[in-house]
Amino acid sequence: MVRCDVLIVGGGPAGSSCAWALRDSGLDVAILDKRRFPRDKVCGGWITPAVLDELQIDPAEYAQRRVIQSITGFRTSYMRGPEIESDYSQPVSYGIRRCEFDEFLLRRSGAHVFEGEPLASVERAGDSWLVNGRIHAGLLIGAGGHFCPVARFAGANARTETAVAAQEIEFEMNPSQVADCSIQGEIPELFFCADMKGYGWCFRKGNFLNIGLGRLDPRALPKHVADFLRFLKMRGKIVFDISASMLGHGYLLYQETRRKMFDDGLLLIGDAAGLAYSQSGEGIRPAIESGLLAAETVIVAKGVYTKEKLAGYGARIKARFGDSKGDWSTAIGRQLPPRCMHSIARVLLSSRWFPRRVVLDQWFLHRNEPALRVPSYSPLHS
Q: Can you count the helices (H) and strands (E) in the chain?
């Protein structure tokens, strides 16, 4: 029988960041994950300088053995429209490979890690939990993504939720493909669908290329993806065939989430809580910040993990990410007919001001949001 104070189910950025933030708390923290690390993870894979700051990661040190692609600009357009390049002349984001980044965070988390073990059973045992018939924990934290079993135990039903569906692929190009690829590592390219319900991307990280497309309306997603790949060839972005299959995944946007994020002895973080940014679909920064906020909540609770003691987590999430129902951009997209949205998108995305000041600065880079700082009374960064 294994005993711990906190069991985190899911070893991705949310779970690992939460455990890392609890490393000096005096609590016994464990992470359970069904996969063994390193493992592949379907994700575009870029992080902002704020993420590195929050996690105290030196990009130069990280780059010694891992891929970290400096991003100094973006090229944006609506499908088949003019491409607008926004140059920042300094790194505003970094491309990472999730197989490397996630393992790095997990190994330095300081938690005891149970790898290759799925959550098979969970039951309440007094004021604690019994997981898989052998792990006793005072607090259970769900960090297992959109289909997290802890979220399902808490009442979430992914089949009834409105989620973004995406397909993407990341692969290492051979020398011939490298020569034929016009995508620049410093300048990822974003192509928005005519109805603004999704976008495709091309993102190069050294010799690795990541291509994908996600939509809030998942109907006929394979057709949208196939059309996007043909469009990239037509534009001369890639001239070679992609032999491997595109991989799919789904996630909730913060504007769409109705999941219960806390209960007696239970918290949900990251994609398990449905915290991806509503406009861009990015989940890494919200996952990491929710993990840090959850850790702060745990420390303040001082070992009493009742619903009332954990309610501060919900308040912290709202203070950081705002009202989940208050996103004007996605609300407008739902109310206007597709033809009208197409006309508006064509005008806005063809300008130079809107792609940089709204799409990039606000929606993708969140440049107006400084790195998360926890209160000084918390030992999270001691």
A: 12, 18
User: What does the pLDDT look like over 302-327, one tens digit per residue?
Assistant: 999 999 999 999 999 999 998 765 55
Structure token digits, residue 95: 């491309």
* Nearest of 76, 280, 91 to residue 189 by alpha carbon: 76
Return the bridge partners of 247, or none: 168
Report d(CA 263, CA 248) in Å as an integer: 31
Cα 359 from chain centre: 18
**CA 155 – CA 69 distance, rounded (Å):** 39
Q: How many CB atoms lie within 10 A of CB 172?
A: 12
The answer to the question of residue 59 being in a domain is yes
**Count of domains observed in the chain:** 1
DSSP secondary structure of 17-70: HHHHHTTTSS--EEEE-SSPSS-------EE-HHHHHHTT--HHHHTTTS-EEE
Are residues 251 and 296 in contact, defined by beta-carbon separation less than 8 angstroms?
no
Q: Is 157 within the bounds of a domain?
A: yes
Count Cα atoms within 13 angstroms, Cβ side, for 27. Answer: 29
Q: Is 265 helix (H, G, I), strand (E, B) or coil?
A: coil
Tell whether 293 is covered by a domain.
yes
DSSP letter assigned to residue 80: T
Boundaries of domain holding 116: 2-68+97-161+253-327
- Residue at 338: amino acid letter: P
Q: Is residue 208 part of a domain?
A: no
CATH number at residue 291: 3.50.50.60
**Among the residues of 149-209, which ranges form H helices?**
149-153, 175-180
> What is the rounded distance in angstroms from the CA atom of residue 167 to the CA atom of residue 214?
6
Whether residue 353 has pLDDT greater than 90: yes
What pLDDT digit, counting tens, does each position of 244-263 carry? Answer: 788 988 888 887 788 999 99
Residue with tokens 């692609």: 69
